Amino acid sequence: MFNRRIALICLIVATLSACGGKTKEELYAEAVKELDKGNANGAIVLLKNAVEKDQNYFDARYKLAKAYMTVGKFEQAEKEFQKALRQNPSNPEIRLDLAKLYNSINKPDESIAEAKAYLSARAGSADALEVIGTSYGQKKMFDEAEKYLKESLQAEPARASAMLQLAKVYLATKREQEGMGLLNEIVRKDPKNTKAYYLAAFYEGYRGNSEKALEYYQKIMQADPDDANAAFRIGMMHISKGEVDKAERLADDLIRKASKRPEGHQLKGIALYTRKNYDQAITELQGVVKNYQNPGAYYYLGLSYYQRNDLESALSQFRKVIDLNPKHLQARLMSATVLLQQKRTDDAITEAKRVIELDDKNAFAHNVLGSAYIAKGMTDEAVRELNRAIELEPKLVGAHMKKGIVNLARGKRAEGEEELETAVKVAPDVLNSRYLLASYYMRLNKQARAIEVLRAGLRGGKQDAPLYNTMAAAAFADKREKDGILYLQKAREVDQAYLPASFNLASYYISKKDNGRAAGLFNEILKRDPANLKALIGLGAISESEGKAQEAVAYYTKAKATKDPVGYLSLASYYIRKKEAPKALALANEGLKGAPNNAALLELKGGLLAADKKYAEALKVYDELEKVAPTRAIPLKIGALVVTKNIPKAVEQAQKVVAANPKSAAGHLVIASIYESQKDYDRAISAVRSGIAVEPGNLRASMALGGIYEKKRDFARAIAAYDDILRKNPKNIPALFAKGAAFDQSGKKKEAAGIYRAVLKIAPDFVPALNNLAYLAAEGYGNKSEALSLASRANKLQPNNAGVMDTYGYALLINGKRTASVRVLEKAVSLLPNNPAVHYHLAMAYRDMGDRAKASVSVQKSLQYGEFPESAAARKLLAELKR
């Protein structure tokens, strides 16, 4: 390839050098000779020089346009044809050439206009009539196409190219006998007319008659053994039949015969893709697209990048396909799919709609559009599109699954469950739908039904291992531990290489403090795979939990030795837990030498530097992180900038979030949080309102607005913000509770208690309302027994919530349960050591128990933290204890 490029460069340099002293006529004459030899590129160099010598040299410019068209440089060809036409408007041949060019680039309207202009000067031209007929065929206006093509054949009955176009029209309108009859007539007159065979092969392939199509491609090879395109088509048919070996042999043969042509390399790349050898496929296909603008090669190159999860590169290739062929539906569908995965939902919707404009009966396009609407929360539109997809393709499992999910999200359980069951019925061997239905039943705590669905998918082979593994999860959730262990053992029996079952069994043993059995499983895995990262980390964790630091470090070091970034992270995390940050930082740097773009290692390094208050260095690391994972990097950069009080820069970073999703409130909320952290509430409110303006239905933004008004102590506006939400949805629990809390903070305790009670009517186990109402009841906005009942229920629902614990302890105290109160409040203080109210409540409990010394210490601690709602009562208690 390098030698070929050098030779080409030398040829061009030599040509350019020779051009300098020649007249325009000499350059033109040499160009014509080069064209006769088939060297259009060499001719282009000479003709450009001739035109540079004389911009009005019509013959050279016209010939230059034709040369551009020969090499497929249609844009340059069109420009030169237009210039030639302006120079010589009376020459009708330019218009006919333009018409043919427009047909080549799928611009039929422009082609018809130019060809009809030509006909006004050359009435009855078979060539022009054929061009017009071809254009109408492109527009699917088949009656007009047939009319003009028949007129062309009347003018020139033996015109094979017009017969071929007419055959296309017949086949497109399902007049098979007439179409195939014309093709047979063409090859009877000219057995080497491969275009007729190509059309016949394409038609048979379209009908699904692959064997007949193969016969026609073989006839092409008989007529022209060097026809690489026919060989490529035969290879693609082998791949579609699963005969990848045959395709690869054919590709190797093509490469051997003509290594510089693209067909062999493209077929080889597609075969490698089919074998899931994506890296080699990319290398092979990149070689094709370097020299040839081939939509098929770009498409499979995009698929290869997609399988490697390199979404941006994949999208770039699909875009190139669309640039070359705007009607390539699969490339548009894949673009929409990638955009959806990148959370560029609006762009995905636009692309899916474009496919539907081109083909409304494309079930997959409706399915993708439905998925995009789900991502936007537009459930009605999503169901409409998914219904259309199912109508067009009843066995489209994905559409049934998504429709089921949407219905479940809308609270339509029966319809959702029915769709998920349908997905399983239409494709019983597709495991994803079976897992989804089982997982739905597991969420409903119908573990037995989930196991039944999974058991129905068992087929008696290795494919059963994941099913047994999920059955175990259902059994454990149902507290049937023996069954869970049995299912995991079954999974290991049917497929010893299926490691999730072994890891899950090990996790179970660890949860039961049976480290010996867990370690045995990890060691068993390591016998099969000595570098298994998860097993090494598992053994390290067991050793660490048993206090065997040396062994733990040894296992984590072995994990690091795999050179996998996760191995470095495991050892670094161990050192962080041991408060040895420098060692962790050294490991992050070492890991980044081998994987400089690893997001987790960059995040670890930046976090360690920030924890050490080296914010400038941390920001440099986050800059690198932003290149590979912007959504992870930007919040970290904002955090570091806010800590260093560089608010303008922090806002600048947040603007990137806005720019990435201009129709979302998310970025504006980030800006608001920056200003809120600085107590710049007016700017924070302005930012939230900007978010609501671009996304009016964003609940998070509306709630944030109320929250900021509360911090500003503007309770009237806070309540108004929550009321805006409640007007649209009166049963919105977060908004209703927040309204109650705003009344509570503003001192309107009675109104607050009423709202908390309203919340609990809708959601009886909503802990924040239980907790706050319990406290108000203890303060006289209810009775003591109600306070204890509410606080007790909240504590049972969230036994580790320190705030709930404080209320529960206080309720116990006022109900005369002093010993229990002290026990609960002591635990609350240990969890909230800087909360003055909890210290005050504990002081009260100590006093009631008669322990004045402890009461005095606790109440003094409460007053160390400044003012709080009960400060006056705390000072009064301290004075009482001092007497």
From TrEMBL:
<dbReference type="InterPro" id="IPR011990">
    <property type="entry name" value="TPR-like_helical_dom_sf"/>
</dbReference>
<dbReference type="Pfam" id="PF12895">
    <property type="entry name" value="ANAPC3"/>
</dbReference>
<keyword id="KW-0802">TPR repeat</keyword>
<dbReference type="Pfam" id="PF13181">
    <property type="entry name" value="TPR_8"/>
</dbReference>
<dbReference type="Pfam" id="PF13432">
    <property type="entry name" value="TPR_16"/>
</dbReference>
<keyword id="KW-0677">Repeat</keyword>
<keyword id="KW-0449">Lipoprotein</keyword>
<dbReference type="InterPro" id="IPR050498">
    <property type="entry name" value="Ycf3"/>
</dbReference>
<dbReference type="GO" id="GO:0009279">
    <property type="term" value="C:cell outer membrane"/>
</dbReference>
<feature type="repeat" description="TPR">
    <location>
        <begin position="126"/>
        <end position="159"/>
    </location>
</feature>
<feature type="repeat" description="TPR">
    <location>
        <begin position="699"/>
        <end position="732"/>
    </location>
</feature>
<dbReference type="InterPro" id="IPR014266">
    <property type="entry name" value="PEP-CTERM_TPR_PrsT"/>
</dbReference>
<feature type="repeat" description="TPR">
    <location>
        <begin position="363"/>
        <end position="396"/>
    </location>
</feature>
<feature type="repeat" description="TPR">
    <location>
        <begin position="295"/>
        <end position="328"/>
    </location>
</feature>
<feature type="repeat" description="TPR">
    <location>
        <begin position="194"/>
        <end position="227"/>
    </location>
</feature>
<feature type="repeat" description="TPR">
    <location>
        <begin position="58"/>
        <end position="91"/>
    </location>
</feature>
<dbReference type="Pfam" id="PF14559">
    <property type="entry name" value="TPR_19"/>
</dbReference>
<dbReference type="InterPro" id="IPR019734">
    <property type="entry name" value="TPR_rpt"/>
</dbReference>
<feature type="repeat" description="TPR">
    <location>
        <begin position="665"/>
        <end position="698"/>
    </location>
</feature>
<dbReference type="GO" id="GO:0046813">
    <property type="term" value="P:receptor-mediated virion attachment to host cell"/>
</dbReference>
<protein>
    <submittedName>
        <fullName>TPR domain lipoprotein</fullName>
    </submittedName>
</protein>
